[in-house]
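@channel sequence for tomorrow's demo:
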Amino acid sequence: MVEVPAGILRPGEDPSAAAQRELREETGCRAGRLDRLGGIYTAPGMSTEYIHLFLARDLTPDRLAMDDDETIEVLTVPFDRALSWARDGTIQDGKTVSALLLAQAFLSE
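structure tokens (generated this afternoon):
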């Protein structure tokens, strides 16, 4: 599964702080800049789960330890290739497709 970093908000945690934490845990990088792209409900009608989506930029190495139940391989690809994968079905994770398309619109502004 190819997907953007994601995780659970801790009680009272700011979504941007959670995004930074998950980015560090899952990729080993810290964002110098996080731009809020919006958010999505993961399964309307079945769940109230809401995911905040961010664009991470100006990355620098800064790893946090991963959760014990995580096995992650970091995949680095050009943005245009990731967009192509979202369109051709290579990426099938809804939050990842949404994040990529929202990032494309954000960067085009």
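heads up for whoever presents: The mean pLDDT is 94.
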